[in-house]
């Protein structure tokens, strides 16, 4: 079971841990954001094309059965 510590000690530990974090630079953040936006656009385009192709194929199958 965890032992209770006072809030002041907890905040000191949090501050100590946050100081160890390596924060990304502004440039790294912008590059990562751009990569995410590009990948979302590529993925959205792929699924749009796949959906249209499958819809067209199902439409052909339905009309061929008449």
From TrEMBL:
Q: What stretch or stretches form a coiled coil here?
A: none
Q: Which GO terms describe its cellular component?
A: plasma membrane
Instruction: Tell me, in one coarse class, where this protein mainly resides.
Output: membrane
Q: What does this protein do?
A: Essential subunit of the Sec protein translocation channel SecYEG. Clamps together the 2 halves of SecY. May contact the channel plug during translocation.
Assembly behavior:
Component of the Sec protein translocase complex. Heterotrimer consisting of SecY, SecE and SecG subunits. The heterotrimers can form oligomers, although 1 heterotrimer is thought to be able to translocate proteins. Interacts with the ribosome. Interacts with SecDF, and other proteins may be involved. Interacts with SecA.
Name the PANTHER family on file. Answer: PROTEIN TRANSLOCASE SUBUNIT SECE
What is this protein identified as? Answer: Protein translocase subunit SecE
Taxonomic classification: Bacteria, Pseudomonadati, Pseudomonadota, Alphaproteobacteria, Hyphomicrobiales
């Amino acid at each position: 079971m965890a032992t209770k510590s006072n809030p002041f000690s907890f905040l000191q530990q949090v501050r100590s841990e946050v100081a160890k974090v390596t924060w990304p630079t502004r440039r790294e953040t912008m590059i990562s954001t751009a990569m995410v936006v590009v990948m979302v656009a590529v993925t959205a385009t792929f699924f749009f094309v796949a959906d249209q192709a499958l819809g067209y194929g199902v439409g052909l199958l339905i009309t061929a059965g008449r």
